[in-house]
Amino acid sequence: MTAVKSFSFLFLVSTVLTTQALIYKDCGSVCGKVRSVAVSGCENSNICILRSGQNANLTVVFTALEDTDKTKASVHGIIGGVPLPFPLPQTDACQNSGLDCPLSNGQNYTYTATIPISTAYPKIKVLVKWELQEARGKDLFCIEIPSAIL
């Protein structure tokens, strides 16, 4: 029995130590609370690699801290402190993003989006700032993800 407990403990510790989550920073979520963030291909990395000519898929689980009937997504690449807009195929986050608007205070939601990484983008390190705003322009979530376009 003791050997089983020891093995289980070692397995748990090794799993925790080898599992890395996507590194992100909350940059001002005032109307929501971020629960988790995932970007395809960036699960075990300190910097998210965005492949030129491919799509990046984002999933954010968050809790709304107020009611809202509209949401708008905004993405910027911050290079040298200068925010440059990344065009999104759909900025209305109530459409094709997994959200069912209106959003209700205290409810958990899963937002998903795909952003094409254009071959015209320079191969450079970039801080990706992704915001989801409620009807009055306040952030349901604001996250920054250290990234590089390759």
Features:
150 residues, mainly beta, three-stranded antiparallel β-sheet, 9 strands, disordered N terminus
Name the overall outline: globular
% residues in beta strands: 35-45%
Mean pLDDT: 86
Distance between the termini: 51 Å
How many DSSP-defined strands?
Answer: 9
CA-atom Rg in angstroms: 18 Å
Q: Which residue ranges are poorly predicted, with pLDDT under 50 across at least 5 consecutive positions? A: 1-20
Profile the largest sheet: 6 strands, mixed
Structural class: mainly beta
Q: Which H/E pattern describes the elements?
A: HEEEEEEEEE
Helix content: 10-25%
Number of helices: 1
Description:
The protein is mostly beta strands. The chain contains one helix and nine strands; from the N terminus they run H-E-E-E-E-E-E-E-E-E. Strands 1, 3, 5, 6, 8 and 9 form a six-stranded mixed sheet that branches. Strands 2-4-7 form a three-stranded antiparallel sheet, with no helix packed on it. It is globular. The termini are far apart. Mean pLDDT is 86; it is low at 1-20.
Explain the layout of strands and helices.
Elements lengths: L1 H17 L6 E2 L5 E8 L8 E3 L4 E10 L6 E9 L2 E4 L22 E9 L8 E10 L4 E11 L1
